[in-house]
Amino acid sequence: MQNVNSQEKKMKEEIENIAPNNTWKNMLKFPHIATLILLAFVVVALHLTRNNDDIVHLQNLVFHKEDGIRHENNSTPVCNLFSGKWIYDNSSYPLYKEKQCSFMENDFACETNGRKDLKYQHWRWQPHHCDLPRFNGTALLERLRGKKLVFIGDSLNRNQWRSMLCLIDSYLPPSSKKSVGVKGNLLSFHSIEYNATIGFYWEPMLVESNGDNIFIHRKQTRAVRIKSIVKHGRHWKDADILVFDSFAWWMDDTMQLVWGSFESPDAIYRTIEMKLRRYEIALNTWSDWLEMHINPNKTKLFFMSLSPYRVGNTTWGTDHTCHDKTEPILNENYWPSGANMSMMRIVESTIEKLKERGVKVEYMNITRLSANREDGHPSIHRPFWHSVTKEEIQNDIPKYSDCLHWCLPGVPDVWNQILYSYIMKL
Questions:
Q1: Among this protein's residues, is 128 annotated catalytic?
Q2: Does residue 107 carry a catalytic annotation?
Q3: Among this protein's residues, is 381 annotated catalytic?
Q4: Are 21 and 30 contacting, i.e. CB atoms less than 8 angstroms apart?
Q5: Digit-coded pLDDT (tens) for 93-107
Q6: CB-based burial of residue 116 (10 Å sphere; 0-12 exposed, 13-18 middle, 19+ buried)?
Q7: Torsion angle, CA of 318/320/324/330, rounded to 10 degrees?
Q8: Of these four, 37, 58, 76, 238, which has the most CB atoms within 10 Å of its CB?
Q9: Which tens digits make up the pLDDT trace of 137-181?
Q10: Which ranges of 122-179 would DSSP assign to H, the alpha helix?
């Protein structure tokens, strides 16, 4: 009983910490001080904007310029691979055919699932002021020789992993065994010829949750052990490249936080709102684990920014308006409602703090470039978990549309082209 009481006390302390910082409340008592501090922030921001040529400011986001592409005279970097526009290119895109990819997953095979308009496969991402390096599967496999690349996160990261396998498929030797193995939460392809592994590890919240089963994870209420990561993290330590993502599963308005193990009868469950604070705590758990267990000289780290969507009432919490979209949104300033900028800032802050502690994580800010591609989602051109007729689907498009994931070939191929450019510089 004493142990339960101590857990209860600790839990209450942590819940009390899930609250806005009181600093600003105190400052409001002295408005003249607050005004001076805010003015100082503005002056410093203007100074940095004027003098730092390595940063591009776009609305409320800060994108660090990609450091591998320079002027012809080798001066200051000018190219940001994440800032650009979509150009229709039916001569060189797609980079592979859906039905020819040995690794294609039915969830992302929109053409196979009945999509007739295939224009979504032919859009090329064109960064401003430079070109996106052309993907070369042989060069990537040589770079990965004797190494292990693992994507860690939710189904969107699985979407990207499948894209990567499709991109390298045609570059593999004809004798290559093109199959995916399953071991616990890890799906992986191993090339014997290159002794290279490209895997996906299912851990949608990065920390432990009741959705950790790779095949059965649909739950009415999400429950998460927000301070626990070791159970799964031990499987990541031997990788040479880790690519993380975790956003969509944190977007529920309420969530249960668990103190104690899921198997323990003494575990304490509390329903918590405050999605930003609970997400911040989880990322702190993740960042502490990286600092303690990852050798930055061996393992290179990446974090994918959120894959954008409009908020709605489909199964995935998205709007259904991607249905029947056949063209990208050409407005470069478009920002969908589900792209939570506050959560993005939490990731950026966490990564910046890790850098100060000697752990470098590349933040792959694919949110804006992906936001324009509402035409690239599966919508109703996907498999269904239960028997459903065409009439039922057509009569309830909002219920059945998947406007979260991406058709392949499609947008995740661009994510991987950008990732490829970073990996080739390692």
A1: no
A2: no
A3: no
A4: no
A5: 999 999 999 999 999
A6: exposed
A7: -50
A8: 58
A9: 999 999 999 999 999 999 999 999 999 999 999 999 999 999 999
A10: 137-143, 155-169
